[in-house]
Design goal:
Length: 581
């Protein structure tokens, strides 16, 4: 397949006359991380806090009246300067501190994209606490698992989402701060409830950031693997080094830019590149709330003269599906740099973007675990549509075989990264064994992706080595969905796989074995879909369900998803010698 993609050897040449990173090869030869460190205040003072570097530092400079945040949705438009962001985040930090929360405590947000969410995350970090952003679409089980595992002590949420917070079942959750509530549940001996508005209004507008070291905790993102519940990927303040420099090199942020990423802070793109990278670079950062809509999205670019736009293949495919005519209704001429992340960016989409937006879409590869960009298409280099480009200066990628030996170019293997890099995750929360699994090859981090490098040093994504599913850019673990399905009284066993889909990348398909006394039916399928939606979230719903008499299993009883996949795709199932009968 990759050969096919490469047959045309088509490339798109650089068009940006003045990119921040001008000479890639030179930077790879000469770049040192220490050069970036010198640009931070802490390099000189020894006092570290992301919120200071991203907000306060600018608020204390000539940028103080520059717009930092533009928040828009169908109802409102809110703009905050860096000085205002400093004050708002100070109030949140002071309020949290007044509740007795201390350095390292986990404080979660469960909010839709809104000014309160962005202020909240930075306020948490300013107070020396570890922020845990939850995606607003999560249902009760998903919320509970994450708050429970992290031992979160406080939560900032809103009145609509509060019913999905099972606070009585969360022994560590002491404080729940609610935006826009009329009434609050009665505080009991364990959990106290607060009106966000009151708490923040009472708090002082001056708050000296809690000073930390570079290795103190900053953010905890839950992300899926193949087995077990989502894991807490823990990042420390040191990540800012790489987030800052990739904001400069890869997003190519300049002083006059209006930058927009469509990603939600519930996912790592929405924090690393929705909060940290843009504000570390002093950029004007636009946030659009609400759901995907081609007209709303294009009119956002037109109205706010967005210059740098970071989205995902699934969104670009949907915009493509909406048709060229919709794009033509709007003036998109402000765009100068467009990027994509989350799943493979189809060459077809790159070609379409080039024709319709007159923009090269720059694919970027990285993961929750990497904290920042690793392999990208730079503004200064030619783009080979279908390739995810080259490693950033200061980072080395290896393609390794299953024993950990490096492979030559044009050979598919495990995509690994030489350890360490500044924004590397520092633990899997509560699970050191899981953390160590990533580092089985000495000196390397194993990504779980299969890729290869071509003779020009470009990397090509080939697939996942494991069963992780990527649907509409969301990373979903099959195990979590299987576990939810078997909670339903009709389900004896379930096996879940990703099935290729032209728009969503993959859709979730479940193979289900029913218990005695239950008959397969369309209604039952609908009921199971609804059950997963209510229990986990809409993006975890299997869009296809197939009933089977039994599932392929190893002798030790593990469902073999590789065989399910082969069934689905009509491919040979491979070696079956370790399966039961
Ligand atoms: C997995 C990580 C980090 C931002 C969002 C995703 C897949 C990510 C690409 C790309 C092909 C990609 C990989 C990776 N992925 N970017 N440019 N081309 N695949 O973060 O949820 O942690 O998922 O997403 O499979 O391992 P994530």
């Amino acid at each position: 397949m990759v050969q096919e993609l490469r047959q045309g050897e088509e490339i798109l040449l650089p068009e940006n006359p003045n990119p921040n990173l001008k000479d890639y090869e030179e930077a790879r030869r000469t770049f040192k991380w220490e050069d970036v460190e010198k640009e931070f205040t802490w390099y000189h003072t020894g006092k570290v806090n992301m919120a200071y570097e991203a907000i306060d530092r600018h608020a204390e400079s000539w940028r103080k009246n520059k717009v930092a945040l533009i928040y828009v949705d169908r109802e409102r438009e809110v703009k905050y300067t860096f000085a205002e962001m400093k004050e708002h985040t100070a109030r949140v930090a002071a309020a949290l501190t007044s509740l007795g929360l201390e350095k390292g405590d986990r404080v979660f947000t469960f909010l839709p994209r809104s000014p309160e969410l962005y202020v909240g995350i930075l306020g948490i970090i300013k107070a020396g606490l570890v922020a845990g952003p939850l995606f607003e679409a999560f249902m009760e089980t998903a919320v509970k698992d994450r708050l429970m595992d992290s031992g979160a002590k406080a939560l900032i949420t809103n009145a609509e989402l509060l019913p999905r917070v099972p606070y009585r079942d969360l022994p560590d959750l002491e404080h729940v701060i609610v935006v826009g509530a009329k009434d609050l549940p009665p505080s009991d001996g364990k959990t106290k409830f607060y009106h966000y508005e009151e708490l923040v209004a009472k708090a002082p507008r001056d708050f000296e950031p809690v000073w930390l070291t570079r290795e103190d905790g900053m953010i905890l993102h839950y992300s899926s693997g193949t087995t077990g519940k989502p894991k807490g990927i823990y990042h420390v303040h040191n990540a800012m080094i790489q987030q800052y420099i990739t904001g400069k090199w890869v997003l190519d942020l300049k002083e006059e830019d209006v930058y927009w990423t469509t990603a939600d802070p519930g996912w790592v793109t929405g924090t690393s590149y929705g909060i940290f990278a843009p504000w570390l670079n002093g950029a004007t950062n636009l946030v659009r709330g609400g759901r995907f809509s081609p007209d709303d999205w294009y009119s956002t670019i037109e109205k706010y003269r967005v210059t740098v736009w970071y989205s995902a293949p699934t969104a670009f495919r949907m915009l493509m599906g909406a048709g060229e005519e919709v794009a033509k209704k709007y003036d998109l001429s402000s765009l100068r740099h467009v990027l994509s992340v989350g799943e493979p960016l189809n060459p077809e989409v790159v070609r379409w973007g080039y024709r319709v937006y007159k923009q090269r879409i720059h694919d970027t590869w990285w993961m929750t675990e990497t904290g920042a960009h690793i392999c990208v298409n730079f503004a200064c280099l030619p783009i080979k549509p279908g390739s995810m480009g080259k490693p950033i200066p200061g980072v080395e990628i290896g393609i390794l075989d299953d024993e950990g030996n490096e492979l030559p170019p044009n050979t598919p293997g495990n995509l690994c990264i030489k350890t360490p890099w500044p924004s590397m995750f520092r633990k899997v929360w509560n699970n050191e064994a899981k953390y160590q699994e990533y580092f089985r090859f000495p000196g390397w981090y194993i990504s779980g992706d299969v890729a290869m490098k071509d003779e020009d040093g470009y990397y090509w994504f080939l697939g996942r080595a494991d069963d992780v599913i990527k649907t509409s850019g969301y990373r979903v673990g099959p195990f979590e969905i299987e576990s939810k399905l078997v909670e339903h009284p009709a389900v004896m066993e379930a096996g879940v796989i990703g099935k290729p889909d032209p728009e969503r990348g993959e859709i979730i398909k479940a193979f289900v074995v029913l218990r005695e006394g239950y008959q397969p039916s369309e209604e039952l399928k609908k009921e199971l879909m609804e059950f997963v939606k209510k229990g986990l979230s809409a993006h975890a719903v299997p869009r296809e369900i197939e009933f089977r008499d039994k599932l392929p299993k190893t002798r030790s009883g593990k469902i073999v998803r590789r065989v399910l996949k082969a069934w689905e795709l009509g491919l040979p199932a491979g070696d079956l010698s370790t399966l039961e009968d």
